[in-house]
UniProtKB/TrEMBL annotation:
UniProt source species: Takifugu rubripes
Family per similarity comment: Belongs to the PET191 family.
Gene Ontology BP terms: mitochondrial respiratory chain complex IV assembly
Name of the molecule in the record: Cytochrome c oxidase assembly factor 5
Cited function: Involved in an early step of the mitochondrial complex IV assembly process.
A Pfam family it matches: Pet191_N
InterPro entries from the UniProt entry: Cyt_c_oxidase_assmbl_Pet191
GO cellular component terms, semicolon-separated: mitochondrion
Length: 75
């Protein structure tokens, strides 16, 4: 579920909620906070994999030619 904040500007772009959750997951993970690694290094180690997959699927659905007829998937 996307997290919404009251003091944040509204982002109407596609996949914005998933992108924000994915970014927050990486930046708040112990790999970044306690071990001091870069988020890209933690991503290679497999942290936040479910959100990464969801973000990828959302972006991929934007390029899917079948979505012209069916509409974008609900993200």
């Amino acid at each position: 579920m996307p997290k919404y904040y009251e003091d944040k500007e509204e982002d109407n772009r596609a996949c914005a909620g998933i992108k924000e959750d994915f970014k927050a997951c990486l930046l708040q993970h112990d790999c970044v906070l306690k071990e001091g690694k870069l988020p890209s290094q933690c991503l290679k180690e497999g942290h936040c994999k479910a959100l990464q997959t969801s973000f990828f699927e959302c972006k991929r659905s934007m390029l899917d030619t079948r979505s012209r007829f069916r509409g974008r998937k609900g993200y």
